[in-house]
Every structure is written in structure tokens, then in C-alpha cells.
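To the wet lab folks,

You asked to see what we're planning to order before we commit. Fair enough. Below is the target structure as C-alpha cells, and below that is the sequence we designed to fit it. If anything looks off to you, flag it before the synthesis order goes out.
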């Protein structure tokens, strides 16, 4: 008896709070009776059973609705009136040799008790349904201590009492009644592990602590939810019936050991509903979506829309009407396969191009029923005949899928006025085995070349000739030759000078003879690396006329027509210098070897007594000028003659101005000599530096 309420099973002498039921392998529909009393007539008595496979009738009879083999399953019978309520737990423990009604089963369980250690504090697990309504607090169980000393008290501890979340449970310290202070949520905390002990008036433990387990009984208060979306699946067109597309699974926060979380799946809606309203099926237990139509109906090219949207429903309570539901949308794409070959829109194409022109001349159009976003639609073109000179190329326009036929090498009307190409088209992806490329996958292109007035062509180009510089004016260099590619037309060619930077040349407009109008100078700034470049024009008599350009390269051979010259032409020396070296002279020549060095240096004449100046050869290009004695402070002019090695040689005489300066106390004074303030030593060093760089 709990709080004046009795709940028994056919008046068996067992604790109504926790019963072990030993069932045979199968229990058929054989009723037994549950008795509950609220001591006030059981007005509006209502029973609830946690399993949908059992029912308690209004007369208290407990009925199994189908054969049960789930040994270990726990049942909870909840009895409630406006005045009281109570609950009993029934645990199926199994037994092959047990036959008969539930009453006999209970009797068997009672005669085979589970051995327990004897103690004075007796506790049984407390089972509390979640989401109970007011009023609170309400008693949910009782602790008994048959040997509790007088004056001792019960004390309850643990998570939910004095540990967070605190204050959910409490115990009557005198009677041992355990109560709950608010409704519970199994999905937050499914079990509470509490401890009961007895203490004396000073709070010292007399017995315990003894564990007390509080189990929160699940109610179906959570809908299934799909947590992994979006759900997008793909299936190839023409797939066999029964092809798995995707799997959809939902989550239910209720107790997975109960039917509250036992889910079943079904398709609530399919959009579009053509060609069949049932294109797919979902496994009610696994959630696998499979095709159920024939491969012929799963043809992407004939479908109204290759995308299907399914509203999938998950329902708990094993799909019973009382179960809660959740929905999600599955999007299924019918993927394309290459089951249609590309076909030209016509067998023959025409194109016209002017000779000499390049670029796209015609676009070849094809049709393909496959998906334009895949390689099953994209076309690849190949020229298989008629292109021996590789004058044509074809590429695919990625936007239109057309074949763009181009001329990549200029065509010559005089060689061939017509071209015929054979072109085939294929897909980037291979065709499926039962489809092949037919005659519609090849096409012929007829190309007409239009004649154009082509420019005359010089041959050779560039034209090259070698001549000595300084040849006489009017000398013939060569006769140029230009031909007209328009061999089928009778046209004349006239020649003219286009670019002649130095103005040295003339060309006969009729026969193309080139002669000189001035002396050719290899040392001219218009000549680079001994080569002079001129351009000529050849113009035909067409309408309009066409002009071609030819290049003439004249290589000029050197002659000894430039005398050498010396550097520097000014020097300084101290009037009391101990080193009588004056300056190192260098020579250069604009001509080429052998018309340059070795140079010969000489003093042409002296305005001072003989043997005052001396010049000595250093190497092929330099000589040293020195004094034989000190001179007074003044300016001196020394004529230096330098001769090159040409045949015949050329000579140049240059005055070397030497300033003799006063050099005292590290100061150089050339004012009286009218010369710059540079010492002779400085001039000598500069000359040596110049020599070292050669």
C-alpha cells in the first residue's frame, strides 16, 4: 500500500512498485487482471500502459495485443483517479517452461525471488513519468527502515537534491516518503542517482548511504526531426527498377528503447507527379529511397522536369496514428547519360573567303538532346578529310556548341579556288554501349576562295649586296626583282624608293636597277655594323593597285679614308719637376683594321732648341711625351704627327699644348702660362688610366 492506494495483480502478495514477470517464449492474447484502489470508489479510474502491445481494460484486465518475444522489456502500468495515482513496473525476464496466464507467471516469479543482501533500509527504484502536471510536490515513493532507532531521521543526497539541479527531490525525514517538486524532462536527465541514509539527532550517519535510483519514464513528447539537410540525391536516367538513390534518417529525442523513438518513413508527396505519381519508394524502416518505375520511364529527355521533390515524413510510435511526425524535402536529380549522339542540322555547309584572309569563315550547327551542362552534350569537331596543308582548324563554341571553322593559313586563289572538307562531330563523353554515331554525325563543307589583288612580292627578301665605300656616284648596285602573285591577271609593276635614310640611292621604276646618287660612307651614322638598310616599293597596275615592300641590305667594305687623331691635346708639367714625363698620348681611327693601328707617333717640328722634347712608343695605340730638361713657366705648342697602317697610310698632325706651371708648397700656379690648374702628375695619371682601359 502506497499512501493509502493499493495496486495489485490478482491480489498477489507482491510489491506493486516493482514486479519481475517471467514470460514464456510467446504470450498470446490471454488476459490477467490488475487491481487498483484509491479507497474512494475508484471514480473515473484510468489505466495507461507504456507499451502499445499491451492494454489495460476498464475492468482492470491486462491484455497482450500480440505475441511477445522481447524478453527484458519493461512495462509500466499507470493508474490514475482524481483522488490518487500509482504506477507499477513489470519486467519480462523470460522462461520456456512457464505456461498459463499472467497470474501464473507472477506466481512463478514470486516463488523464485532474486537473492538480496539483508539490510534494515529497504529502497526500491522510483519511476516517474516525465511532464507530470500540477500539483507539486507529490509523493513518488517511500523508503522503509524496519530497525530505525527512535529519534533517527532519513536524509536524502545526490544530484537533484543537494547537487545541481538542486531541490528536485526531497524526503520526509520522519516517514521516508520521497517526493518530487516539479515536472521532469527525460531528454534532459533520464536517471537520478540518489542516496538514502539514517542519521541521529546530531546528523551522524547510523546506516547507509543506500543508493536510490530514480528513473524518468519517457513520454512521446518529441517529434522526429531531420537534422542533416539539405537532402539531394542523384540517379542516372534509365537506371533499373529498385536502384537506391539516397538515404534519409530522422532523429527522435525520446527513449530509443521505446516505441516513442521507433520511426517509420513514408513519402507524403511527389512533385511533379508525371509520368507516374509513384516514381520512388522509401523503405519504412531504413529510410532508403529507391526507384520503382521501369527504366523507360526514367528517361531524362522525355521527362517534364528532371528534378523531383519528395516530402518525406518520419513518424514515431512505429508509424501508428498516435505517433508524432516530422517532415523534410528530398530533391532527386535525374542525371543525364550520353544516350543521344550529336547530329548536324544539315549535311552540307557553304563558306566563302577571300584569298589571304584568316579567321572564322562558317559556324557548323548540331543538335543534341542530352544535358547541356555535361560532356554528353558538349561537341568535339574533327576535320577528317580535305585539309592536307593544315590551312583549316575547327573549334567548339562553348556557349552555342557550334563548330567554328577557321582559316589559319592564307589561301591562294591561283593555287586552288575551291576546297571541300569532311568534318565529324562527337561528344566529349563516350556514348552508352547501345548508341553509336551515325551518318548525321558527319557533314561536308564547301569553301569558295575569292580572288584578290595581291601585292607584288620581292624575291629574295631581304636582298643583300656587298660594295666598297666611296665607290663612284652612279655605280650600279643590283637589279631588284618583284613578281605579282596574280598570275591569271596581266599587270605591270613599277618600282620606287620607300626609305633611303642617307639619300644615296636611286631605282629605275621600270626595270628595278638600283644605282648610287652619292658616295657611300661606311662611317656614316646611318650605317650600323657596316650595313646600310634601304626599302623599296613594287606597285602593280590593279584597281585598286597593290603594293609590296622589299628590303635591301648593303654591306660596305672599309677603305682607308680616315686619318687617325690623338688625345688628349692639352697637358701640364711643373717647371721644377723631377719626373720629366709630360703626357701619354692615345690615337684612334674611324676605319677598320688593317687601316688603323699600329700607329706611328712623331714630333713633326719643334719651336724650341732640339732635344728638348721626346716621344716614345708604349704600344700600338699609345706613346709617351716627355721633356729632356726643365723649361720655364710658359705655354708650348708641340706638333704631333700620327700615321695609321693603311695602304696607302694616312697621316694627321695635331698641336699638343703643354703648360709649364710653377709648383711650390704643393700649389700649382699656371696663371702666368694661361693654363688650367692641373699638375703634370695629374695629367700623367689621367693618361695612364686611359691607357689601362684600352
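Sequence we intend to order:
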Amino acid at each position: 500500500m502506497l499512501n493509502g492506494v493499493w495496486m495489485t495483480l490478482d491480489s498477489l502478495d507482491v510489491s506493486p512498485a516493482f514486479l519481475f514477470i517471467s514470460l514464456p517464449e510467446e504470450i498470446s492474447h490471454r488476459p490477467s487482471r490488475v487491481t487498483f484502489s484509491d479507497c474512494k470508489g475508484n471514480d473515473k479510474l484510468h489505466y495507461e500502459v507504456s507499451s502499445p502491445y499491451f492494454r489495460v481494460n476498464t475492468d482492470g484486465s491486462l491484455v497482450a495485443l500480440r505475441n511477445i518475444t522481447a524478453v527484458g522489456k519493461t512495462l509500466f502500468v499507470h493508474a490514475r483517479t482524481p483522488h490518487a495515482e500509482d504506477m507499477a513496473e513489470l519486467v519480462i525476464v523470460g522462461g520456456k517452461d512457464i505456461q498459463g496466464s499472467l497470474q501464473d507467471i507472477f506466481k512463478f516469479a514470486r516463488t523464485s525471488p532474486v537473492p538480496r543482501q539483508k539490510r534494515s533500509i529497504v529502497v526500491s527504484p522510483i519511476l516517474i513519468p516525465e511532464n507530470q502536471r500540477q500539483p507539486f510536490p507529490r509523493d513518488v515513493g517511500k523508503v522503509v527502515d524496519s530497525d530505525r532507532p527512535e529519534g533517527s531521521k532519513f536524509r536524502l543526497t545526490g544530484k537533484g537534491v543537494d547537487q545541481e539541479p538542486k531541490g528536485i527531490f526531497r524526503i520526509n525525514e520522519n516517514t521516508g516518503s520521497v517526493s518530487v517538486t516539479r515536472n521532469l524532462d527525460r531528454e534532459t536527465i533520464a536517471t537520478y542517482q540518489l542516496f538514502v541514509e539514517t542519521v541521529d539527532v546530531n546528523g551522524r550517519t547510523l546506516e547507509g548511504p543506500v543508493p536510490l535510483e530514480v528513473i524518468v519514464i519517457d513520454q512521446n513528447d518529441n517529434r522526429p526531426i531531420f537534422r542533416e539537410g539539405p537532402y539531394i540525391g542523384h540517379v542516372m536516367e534509365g537506371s533499373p527498377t529498385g536502384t537506391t538513390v539516397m538515404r534519409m534518417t530522422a532523429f527522435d529525442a525520446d527513449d530509443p528503447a521505446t516505441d516513442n523513438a521507433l520511426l517509420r518513413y513514408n513519402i507524403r508527396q511527389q512533385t511533379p507527379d508525371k509520368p507516374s505519381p509513384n516514381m520512388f519508394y522509401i523503405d519504412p524502416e531504413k529510410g532508403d529511397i529507391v526507384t520503382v518505375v521501369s527504366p523507360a520511364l526514367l528517361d531524362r529527355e522525355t521527362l517534364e522536369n528532371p528534378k523531383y521533390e519528395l516530402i518525406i515524413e518520419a513518424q514515431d510510435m512505429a508509424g501508428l496514428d498516435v505517433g508524432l511526425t516530422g517532415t523534410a524535402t528530398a530533391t532527386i536529380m535525374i542525371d543525364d547519360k550520353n544516350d543521344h549522339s550529336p547530329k548536324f542540322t544539315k549535311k552540307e555547309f557553304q563558306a566563302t573567303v577571300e584569298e589571304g584572309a584568316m579567321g572564322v569563315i562558317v559556324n557548323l550547327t548540331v543538335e543534341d538532346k542530352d544535358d547541356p551542362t555535361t560532356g554528353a552534350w558538349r561537341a568535339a569537331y574533327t576535320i577528317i578529310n580535305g585539309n592536307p596543308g593544315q590551312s583549316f582548324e575547327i573549334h567548339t563554341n562553348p556557349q552555342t556548341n557550334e563548330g567554328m571553322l577557321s582559316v589559319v593559313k592564307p589561301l591562294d586563289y591561283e593555287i586552288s579556288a575551291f576546297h571541300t572538307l569532311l568534318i565529324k562531330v562527337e561528344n566529349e563523353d563516350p556514348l552508352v554501349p547501345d548508341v553509336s554515331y551515325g551518318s548525321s554525325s558527319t557533314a561536308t563543307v564547301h569553301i569558295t576562295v575569292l580572288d584578290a589583288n595581291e601585292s607584288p612580292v620581292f624575291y629574295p627578301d631581304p636582298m643583300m649586296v656587298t660594295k666598297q665605300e666611296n665607290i663612284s656616284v652612279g655605280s650600279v648596285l643590283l637589279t631588284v626583282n618583284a613578281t605579282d602573285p596574280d598570275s591569271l591577271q596581266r599587270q605591270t609593276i613599277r618600282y620606287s624608293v620607300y626609305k633611303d635614310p642617307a639619300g644615296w640611292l636611286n631605282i629605275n621604276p621600270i626595270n628595278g636597277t638600283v644605282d648610287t646618287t652619292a658616295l657611300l660612307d661606311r662611317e656614316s651614322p646611318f650605317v650600323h655594323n657596316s650595313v646600310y638598310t634601304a626599302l623599296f616599293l613594287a606597285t602593280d597596275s590593279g584597281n585598286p593597285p597593290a603594293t609590296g615592300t622589299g628590303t635591301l641590305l648593303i654591306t660596305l667594305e672599309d677603305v682607308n679614308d680616315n686619318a687617325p687623331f690623338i688625345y688628349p691635346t692639352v697637358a701640364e708639367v711643373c717647371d721644377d719637376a723631377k719626373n720629366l714625363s709630360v703626357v701619354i698620348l692615345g690615337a684612334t681611327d674611324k676605319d677598320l683594321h688593317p687601316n688603323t693601328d699600329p700607329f706611328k707617333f712623331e714630333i713633326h717640328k719643334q719651336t724650341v732648341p732640339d732635344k728638348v722634347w721626346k716621344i716614345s712608343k708604349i704600344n700600338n695605340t699609345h706613346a709617351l711625351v716627355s721633356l729632356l730638361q726643365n723649361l720655364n713657366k710658359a705655354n708650348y705648342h708641340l706638333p704631333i704627327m700620327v700615321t695609321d697602317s693603311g695602304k696607302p697610310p694616312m697621316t694627321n698632325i695635331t698641336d699638343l699644348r703643354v703648360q709649364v706651371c710653377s709648383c711650390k708648397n704643393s700649389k700649382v700656379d699656371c696663371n702666368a702660362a694661361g693654363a688650367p690648374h692641373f699638375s703634370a702628375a695629374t695629367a700623367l695619371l689621367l693618361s695612364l688610366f686611359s691607357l689601362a682601359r684600352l
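Structural context that might help your review: DSSP finds two helices and 51 strands in the chain. Residues 1-30, 93-118, 674-694 have pLDDT under 50 and may be disordered.

Thanks,
Computational group
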